[in-house]
Write a structure and sequence with these properties.
Chain lengths: ~190, ~240
Amino acid sequence: MSLQATTWQTVGPFFSIGFSWLYRDNLAGPGVSGERVEIAGRILDGDSKPVPDGIVEIWQANSQGKYAHPDDPQENKAESGFTGYGRIPTDDGGRFRFTTIKPGRVPGPDGKLQAPHLAISVFTRGLLRRLITRIYFPDEPSNTEDFALGLVEAGRRGTLIAKKMEGRAGALEWNVVLQGPGETVFFDV
Amino acid sequence: MSKIPEYRRYIPGTQPPHLHPPYVSSIKRAPLQPLVVLAHTLSEITGPVFGPEIADVKACDLTRQHSGEPLGERIVVSGRVLDENSRPVPHTLVEIWQANAAGRYLHGIDQHNAPLDPNFTGCGHALTDSEGRYRFVTIRPGEYPWGNHHNAWRPAHIHFSLFGPAFATRLVTQMYFQGDPLIPYDPIFNCTDDEKARNRLISQFDWETTIPSQALGYRFDIVLSGRESTPMETHPHGEKS
C-alpha cells in the first residue's frame, strides 16, 4: 500500500442539490424480471424525530442473484436494463419510498449463498460518514442461514428485516433508527 | 466462492468517528451501538456502474449552466482519483456541490443573508478518464456562517461524492483551499484525528492547470480504498485469516 484513503466528511445540510440529478426510486423498469416490491419507511434520529434531509442509496443484484458489475463472474445470469442502483431522498416527514424487485441469492463466504438482501447507504447531515446497513425480506427461509444476519445478536436482527404491510401485496416497511432504542444495525464494511 | 479480493479497511484514526460532539448535528444522529464488522462479499466488492452518457459537458463546467456568467472568481479544480495501491480509478462518477461566491447555497433551507446568483446552481458531475483524471470549472465558493456554535463560520469548501469500483469504495468528502484562515477552527474539518489525513483535504494552488487570463487552478487528488494485495480467506464471523 502506498497511499492512504481520503478521509470522509459529512454531506452537510444542502447535499440534495448535488444528489438530486441522480434520484432513482424505481429500480425495476417494465421489462425487468422478478417479484416486484415497494419498500417504504422513515429515517428517525435519537429523539425519534423524522430526518427530513436524508438520502438512501440502494445496491442490489437482479432476480437471478447477479450484480450488474464486471467483477461478478456469473455472466449467464445478466439482465440488460437492470442496474441495481437507487437513490431516494426523505420528505419533510423523514419518509422514503422505492420500487424494486426482490433480488436472488448471491454467493457469500465459504461458498454458501446469502439470503436475498439490498445493500444500503444512509446519508444525512450530522453523519460524518455514511451508515451502511442491509434490507432483508420477511418470510424468507434462507434468512436463518445468512452469514451476515448470523453476526448480529438475535434481539437486533429484526432491524434488518422489512415487515409486510397489512392488506397490500408486495408492500414492505423498513425504517432506519439512527440512534437509541431500536437502533438499526449498521455494518463496518 | 470462498476467496474474495476484499478492499482494505480504513486505518484507525484516518477517518472520522460517527460521534464528534463539537459537530453538534452528530449528537442525535450518530449510532451508539458498535458497528458489526462485515466480511466483503460479492455485494460489497461490486457497485453501481455509470456510462459516459450521464456526463455531458455542461455538467463539469459550473460557469456555463446558465445564460450569463456567475459572479466570483473563476477556478479550475482538477486532480486524479487513485486507489491506495496508486492505481488510477478510471471512468468513475465524481459529483460536486458548493455555495456561490457569496457563501449561499441554492437550497430552500439555506437562510444565510447573502444573495443568490441567478447564473450559478453550484453542482456538477463528471466521469474520470482512463487515467483517473477529473476536471471541473467553477467559481471559488464563499465562506459562510452556520449555527453550530457562537460565531461559527465554515471555511470555503467544495463537497465531493465518489463511487469508485465497488459498494465498499464509496466516498463523500470536502475539499478546502490552501491558506484559508478558518480551517483550524472548523469542527467538521477537525473531526478526523490524524493531522496528515486532515491536511490532505486541502487543495493546492497549481500553476500547471491555471488558465492565463481566465482562472486559477487548484489540484485535489482523491484516494479510494484499494484491494488487499492478495485475496484473503473470509470467514463467516467477519474476520480475516
